[in-house]
Amino acid sequence: MFFTDASKTEKGIGIAIVHHDTKIKYRLPKEYSIFSAEAIAVLKTIEFIQIQYEMSTNNLVLTDSLSTLRSLENNTNPTDVAKNIQEKTNKLKLRGINITFFWVPGHRNISGNETANQAAKEAAQPNNLNIQFLDIVTYDDIKSEIKNKSLIKCRREKVLLNRLRIGHTRLTHKYLMAKEEPNQCTVCEVTLTVKHIITECYQYSEDLKKYNIPPNLYEALGPNSENTSNMLTFLKKSNLYGKI
After folding, report:
1. Phi, psi dihedral angles at 21 (to 5 degrees)
2. DSSP state for residue 52 in the 8-state scheme
3. DSSP conformational letter for 108
4. Torsion region of 137: left, alpha or beta (phi above 0 gives left; psi -120 to 50 gives alpha)
5. pLDDT of residue 52
6. What digits encode the pLDDT tens for the residues 56-100?
7. What does the H/E/C string look like for 56-79?
8. How far is CA 155 from CA 116, 151, 159, in A?
9. Mean pLDDT across the stretch 166-172?
10. pLDDT tens across 116-129, in order?
């Protein structure tokens, strides 16, 4: 039985997973919506089950977020996080590992839920250096921030940036179609990901500095028009534009 929760304060956002005596806490960028945070708490739970509980055939994931559960029922146009959860859950099911999602009312003195709520509040505190910071971006939060602002007029650039924001590009994921091993960074000798290219790769570090790309993934791919323009320039100058 896994309890999940999220907490949003003026200082930050935290999420937590509680399983028996185990507590797992993460801090998220403060720009996140509470809806996305609740969904990511569920996503991280599924990933935890994938790694730690491969032999557990039946797993119950509880959340007090009805919006998250409803998003998981949407097979037509799910959010990017919900789609990720659906895909991981389906893959686990094929391996005989079942995930059941269940709603639990919040603030009703349900022990596991109260523990998860308190842990999420602790994770939201920016001065807690023991909490892992998840430097990830959800397209839905970016979309809600920019709303009707048209920062990018070119459709090609919109598609390119959206691919970067969800972390799924031709450069990093073409191996899936080819049924090959994941692409490796030839310089750093690690799996090639969007996060690696923008925040970690030695090959592009000088160009990233040259074009003032923030080292934080959320800021680099966020709605700030100057950062967006700089990112597009970097991609073109580094010959990555046509590979995304």
Report:
1. -95, 0
2. H
3. S
4. beta
5. 79
6. 789 999 999 999 999 999 988 888 889 999 999 999 999 899 999
7. CCEEEEEECCHHHHHHHCCCCCCC
8. 42, 11, 6
9. 89
10. 999 999 999 888 77
Q: For the whole model, what pTM was predicted?
A: 0.61
Assess contact for 115 and 2: CB atoms under 8 A.
no
Percent of the chain whose predicted confidence (pLDDT) is above 70: 91
Token code pair at residue 218: 């959320």
Helix (H) or strand (E) holding 218: helix 217-220
Domains with residue ranges and CATH for the chain: 2-147 (3.30.420.10), 150-238 (no CATH)
53 C-beta neighbours (distance < 10 Å), count: 14
CA distances from 172 to 23, 140, 244 (A): 32, 21, 8
Six-digit token string for 133 = 């910071």
Tokens of 99: 């995930």
pLDDT > 90: percent of the chain: 55
Collect contacts of 79-87 with beta carbons under 8 A, ≥24 apart: 79/36, 79/39, 79/138, 79/140, 80/138, 80/139, 80/140, 80/166, 81/36, 81/39, 81/40, 81/43, 81/138, 81/140, 82/39, 84/43, 85/39, 85/42, 85/43, 85/46
**Residue matched to tokens 């990901």:** 193
**Cβ–Cβ contacts within 10 Å for residue 172, how many?**
23
Which SS3 state, helix, strand or coil, does residue 184 take? strand
Bridge-based pairing of strands 132-133 and 98-103 is: unpaired
First to last CA, the chain: 40
Instruction: Give the 3-state secondary structure of residue 204.
Output: coil
Q: Is 3 exposed, middle or buried (0-12, 13-18, 19+ CB in 10 A)?
A: buried
